Here is the input.
Amino acid sequence: MTSTPKRVPIPRNGVDYRGKVVLAPMVRSGELPSRLLALKYGADLVWGPETVDKSMIGTNKNFNPLTSTIDFTRFPSNSSRPAPKDQKESVIYKLHPTKESGRLIFQLGTSSPTIAVEAAKLVASDVAGIDVNAGCPKPFSTTGGMGAALLQTPELLASILEALVKEVGEVYQIGISVKIRLLETPEKTEALVRRLCQTGITGLTIHCRTTPMRPRERAIRDQLRMIGRICREAGVACLMNGDVANRDQALKLAEEYGVDGAMIATAAEANSSCFRTEADGGLLPWKEVVIEYMNLAVEVDNRWGNTKFLLSQLMPGKAEAAKRCQQAKNYRQVCEILELDDLYDKARDLDDRLGITQRAGQAVEKAKKQNQSAKAAGRHSGAHHENQEERGILAQRGITAVSAMAV
Here is the structure.
């Protein structure tokens, strides 16, 4: 008689990570339209971008009837200059309560059990789980003792998870999980995983790289079987991350290494249809994916700077349309370039709401008055403005600008 494998109970409003292929948390490629795109193409779950605990505290939660989204907003607090009287609140986090229902995991950047709990409670009723980031190697995380820095303070990390399990997971009936990296030796990794599996978490994701490793370096899978076995013994679902290219490969690797599922990052950033199986047709042409992305971005009023960045990832750089889109100043111009006639009116209205129609017009008038050299400088100035705007939004989420733009 075979015994039933041990499993940490999945809370009523939570979700089991087993058998899932999911979208990884990514700073700029994990915003709402990117998540919706991944879900459309078959992602089982989606992780939002890391959001630092302190950036959520003090936010206002509002339902936006225009986009049917829940927006967490607050006024900027990182400037020493007096705020303009007409200044609008910044959107710190945006989710879709219907389309992401039961499938969204909120990733939290934290180094404090108390602050983690305070921040997590703000979103707990709207997500299927809270995931603690203990794997990001970038300075915007590690400088504050967050991300991969937590790997060096395992008891602090365990105390954060235990607090979240007790004060958020049990109260709101959602799962608490953690994403980590490999440590310097298999022995250290084993000890860490065993300790974390004792905290009451329902899931653990292992990024198969050490903290110093960069994404271009090949993932290390030698320890996966050991990590999967420890999680299985504790009843904790285990996902793998690192060099996973598509859904079919994800499921094959999970079976080969004895883990429960896999997380896709870079491949999804380049073409979200990687979540489709080969039986369903596999990867779609980039233009089809871009058109779908544009529709979603306009639907949810996505920030222009973020949309422009994602277009640069989804479109092959040598394509003429890609080059022209990178010179675009607003949604309307992208619709013209891609000949998205059905979306044009909505794009124009969104430009008006975002205040970027006037900016584009001013740029054109300025270019007319300048020589060819100045025109080129003007184009660079426009791109600089958009980057500055995106950096400002990321900073509001608690992510330092220079490091974030390199993620």
Notes: The longest strand covers residues 175-182. Residues 373-382, 401-407 have pLDDT under 50 and may be disordered. The CA atoms of residues 36 and 78 lie 30 Å apart. DSSP finds 17 helices and twelve strands in the chain.
